């Protein structure tokens, strides 16, 4: 008995056609924008070269523990997404900045280049302690 009611309700729903009266229906303009984003991959471009440069600079300046941590995050962990990796690298850099106070101008410049990349993906990132 219940099965026949469900079948008749589905038959009525299919004969009525598209549900144009729903308020959350996308417009053609929204569809075109979504398609252009899918085709071009229009999202923040992730560049890892600044992190490689920072790792080299940290190694030469004697901060080998932080360099090894960043290298491990960058090359030895399988991440689900690039944004997840960037977030973890950003947190590691913020942690390093919180523990080290006297940095060279070259190191500060490398850190700020990396944090610019991190802020593109995670604009509200900050170290929680």
Which keywords apply here?
129 residues, 2 domains, 6 helices, 67% helix
Kindly describe this structure.
This protein is mainly α and 129 residues long. It has two domains: 2-40, no CATH class; 49-121, no CATH class. 67% of the residues lie in helices and 0% in strands. It has six helices and no strands. Helix 4 (64-75) packs antiparallel against helix 5. The protein is elongated, with a radius of gyration of 25 Å. The relative contact order is 0.11. The model has no long low-confidence stretch (mean pLDDT 78).
Write the layout of secondary structure elements.
Blueprint: H1 2-15, H2 28-40, H3 49-60, H4 64-75, H5 82-99, H6 105-121
Helix pairs in contact: 3-4, 3-6, 4-5, 5-6
Short structural description:
With 129 residues, this protein is mainly alpha-helical. The protein is 67% helix and 0% strand. The protein has helices spanning 2-15, 28-40, 49-60, 64-75, 82-99, 105-121.
């Amino acid at each position: 008995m219940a099965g026949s009611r469900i079948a008749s309700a589905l038959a009525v729903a299919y004969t009525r056609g598209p549900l144009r009266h729903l308020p959350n229906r996308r417009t053609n303009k929204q569809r075109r924008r979504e398609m252009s984003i899918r085709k071009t991959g229009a999202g923040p471009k992730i560049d890892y070269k600044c992190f490689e440069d920072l790792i080299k600079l940290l190694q030469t300046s004697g901060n080998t523990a932080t360099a090894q941590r960043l290298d491990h995050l960058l090359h030895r962990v399988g991440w689900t997404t690039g944004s997840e990796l960037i977030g973890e690298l950003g947190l590691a850099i913020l942690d390093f900045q919180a523990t080290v106070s006297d940095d060279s101008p070259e190191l500060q410049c490398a850190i700020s280049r990396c944090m610019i990349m991190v802020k593109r993906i995670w604009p509200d990132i900050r170290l929680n302690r």
